[in-house]
């Protein structure tokens, strides 16, 4: 059962990062674009983005590729892939006190996640808001892809992103 849960979390984290990692060359910082259903999405690619894992900058992540999109009551933060290595994807509620619904990080080739699937929870995340800057902290869990039989690994993270 542990192997199935570990594989499920890894697949969910990888899928989240891949979905969030599309490259929209047509957007400009702070632009508005029509979203599905005719609503307007706020897209932000500017700001002072930081992504730290275990207190260190996430090496290999292009911070210039990190975007923040507000649409449909959600805030989506994602990065473009750099050589298929490091990546980031976050979905949280767009509320006065946002909550993280899912988070995926690719760290050293390992897919780590904060998620709830089928009543099982992996990792944890808290959000602090200061104006239009969001700081997400917590612990993400996943499988060690170099040694999947070793069980789960947990890494502390801190993500700071500005969403206009």
UniProtKB/TrEMBL annotation:
PROSITE patterns, alphabetized: PROKAR_LIPOPROTEIN (PS51257)
Q: Which UniProt keywords apply?
A: Cell membrane, Lipoprotein, Membrane, Palmitate, Signal
Composition-biased stretches (Polar residues): 28-48
Cross-referenced Pfam families, in alphabetical order?
Myco_19_kDa
Query: Which residue ranges are recorded for the region named Disordered?
Result: 27-48
| GO CC aspect terms | membrane
Q: What is this protein called?
A: Lipoprotein LpqH
Q: Which portions of this protein are annotated as coiled-coil regions?
A: none
């Amino acid at each position: 059962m542990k192997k199935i849960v570990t594989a499920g979390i890894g697949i969910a984290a990888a899928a989240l990062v891949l979905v969030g990692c599309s490259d929209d060359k047509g957007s400009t910082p702070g632009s508005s674009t029509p979203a599905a259903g005719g609503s307007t999405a706020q897209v932000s690619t500017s700001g002072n983005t930081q992504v730290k894992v275990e207190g260190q900058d996430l090496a290999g992540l292009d911070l210039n590729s990190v975007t923040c999109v507000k649409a449909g009551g959600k805030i989506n933060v994602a990065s473009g892939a750099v050589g298929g290595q490091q990546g980031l994807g976050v979905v949280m509620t767009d509320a006065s006190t946002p909550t993280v619904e899912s988070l995926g990080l690719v760290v050293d080739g390992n897919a780590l996640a904060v998620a709830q699937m089928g009543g099982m929870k992996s990792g944890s995340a808290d959000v602090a808001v200061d104006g239009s800057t969001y700081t997400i902290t917590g612990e993400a869990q996943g499988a060690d892809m170099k040694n999947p039989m070793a069980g789960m690994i947990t890494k502390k993270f801190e993500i700071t992103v500005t969403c206009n």
